[in-house]
Amino acid sequence: MQRIAAIDCGTNSLRLLVSDVGSEDIRQVTRTMEIIRLGEGVDETGHISPAAIERARVVLEKYVDHMVRENVRAVRMVATSASRDAENRDEFFDMTERVLSKVQPGARAEVIDGTEEAKLSFIGAVKDLPPTNEPILVIDLGGGSTEFIVGKQNGEILGAYSTRMGCVRLTERFLHTQPPTPDEIAAARAYVREQLAEVEATVPVNKATSYVGCAGTFTTLSAIAQGLEEYDEQAIHMSTMRTQGLKMVTHDLLGQTGAQRAMLPVMHPGRADVIGGGSIVVEEIVDFMRSRAGLDTITISEHDILDGIIAGLAQEVR
């Protein structure tokens, strides 16, 4: 067995997956997440703030200590929307090399473009679905971007597109009050619809016979809809929801303040102030998929880009 790790640094969170790789299988050892809000203000200023880089460093140091204790032999860290957009991204990447080299000399976070991010997310999200030859749409809703990928379980990608919308980006750009005003919500919806029009022009969403939502907004919505008293990855992973029921949850969240959302037992404190933006994205997506593909159920996956990174890294170390 080889022990390897994947790290995903998005706009909102820093996440770690440690897995054991055998000759034929991959087994999860550790999966964890912390909110660091690396992308705070990047949409407006074009720069990652020193405070955000420091928040990332503190959490990354903790992850590295864990990987050293767990005898991790190889690590790959990817950075997505916020670091793609920031003019001072090299400051962040230099920091990651100093920290990650304690696990693997020369390891450094790498920027991946939206297309690779989409493909890695697809690989991770579909691996636990029932076998099918039909096209599947995977939607990875992040803090600064949302990826749409139509593909098949055999790895064939029929289309992929990365949009410039996510829970943090929408909140910072449009939702300036808590709860947001009708005018703020309307402006955010109009922006999301513009982004979805670009998706439709690029990705064959109408061919999808099912779709999967992954990342923190979707998984938190599933936990709330199920009435969970604590966040339970096993209960959330591969849960299937009627989209009308999902919209009842998002409607309630949009009417709440950040403090009210934070009181929900499954809500991560760092997500409470931005899940309203994520809820608007989700509402527009489910209406879009009902009208374009006739789909009124969605599957929620706890697995995503981290699992895709692990799958690729496993091929290298075997």
TrEMBL record:
Pfam families: Ppx-GppA
Stretches assigned to the Ppx/GppA phosphatase N-terminal domain: 18-308
Source species, domain of life: Bacteria
Gene Ontology molecular-function annotations: exopolyphosphatase activity
Keyword annotations of the record: Hydrolase
Classification via InterPro entries: ATPase_NBD (IPR043129), GppA/Ppx_hydrolase (IPR050273), Ppx_GppA_N (IPR003695)
Listed transmembrane segments: none
Organism: Corynebacterium glucuronolyticum ATCC 51866
E.C. numbers: 3.6.1.11
Name of the molecule in the record: Ppx/GppA phosphatase family protein
Broad class of enzyme this protein falls into: hydrolase
